[in-house]
Q: What sequence folds into this?
């Protein structure tokens, strides 16, 4: 593996705080999970965010117990926000929902958003605006509404 790489397709920069402070914690289970997803999709994954120092988390309005904080990465329970280049967000959500339901690759948290997805390697749970919207669409369809 090349010097700057943490896996076949991800660099140290992908697992470094975006504020420039230099906080770098490549949580092994998260590196493994995102690499497996990259291999599954056979398409480049664009990382938005992994670890965030406390100061950066506060600055961007992150929650107090964000799985992006170093204390979770140190326990190998980190988080990553991403999208897949060349794949629609709708398709990404469909794929991730199925993988999450099957518990074959995704065994932690899954949040779905207009920009992509958040996964983490802590507890099995789900959230995000796109779980709700899909449910509302299903109800409307059942009721014959548009």
A:
């Amino acid at each position: 593996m090349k010097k700057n790489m943490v896996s076949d397709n991800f660099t140290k920069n992908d697992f470094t705080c975006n504020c420039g402070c230099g906080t770098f914690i490549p949580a092994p289970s998260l590196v493994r999970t995102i690499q497996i997803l990259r291999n599954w999709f056979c398409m480049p994954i664009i990382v938005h965010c992994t670890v965030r120092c406390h100061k950066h988390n506060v600055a961007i309005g992150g929650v107090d117990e964000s799985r992006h904080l170093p204390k979770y990465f140190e326990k190998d329970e980190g988080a990553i926000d991403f999208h897949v280049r060349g794949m629609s967000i709708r398709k990404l959500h469909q794929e991730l929902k199925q993988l999450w339901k099957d518990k074959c690759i995704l065994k932690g948290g899954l949040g779905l958003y207009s920009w992509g997805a958040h996964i983490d390697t802590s507890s099995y749970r789900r959230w995000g605006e796109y779980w709700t919207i899909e449910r509302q669409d299903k109800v409307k369809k059942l009721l014959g509404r548009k």
